[in-house]
Amino acid sequence: MALIVQKYGGTSVGTIERILAVAEKVKRHRDQGNQVVVVVSAMSGETNRLIALASEIDETNDPREMDMLVSTGEQVTIALLSMALQKLGCPARSYTGGQVHILTDSAYSKARIRDIDGARVKADLEAGRVVVIAGFQGIDEHGHITTLGRGGSDTTAVAMAAALKADECQIYTDVDGVYTTDPRVEPKARRLERITFEEMLEMASLGSKVLQIRSVEFAGKYNVPLRVLSSFEEGEGTLITFEDERMEQAKISGIAFNRDEAKLTIRGVPDQPGVAFKILGPISDQNIEVDMIVQNIAADTSTTDFTFTVNRGDFKRAKAILENTAQELNAQEALADDKIVKISLVGVGMRSHAGIASTMFEALAKEGINIRMISTSEIKISVVVDEKYLELGVRTLHEAFNLEEAS
Ligand code: ASP
Ligand code: MG
Question: Residue of the nearest CA to atom 5 in ligand 1?
Answer without folding.
Answer: 151
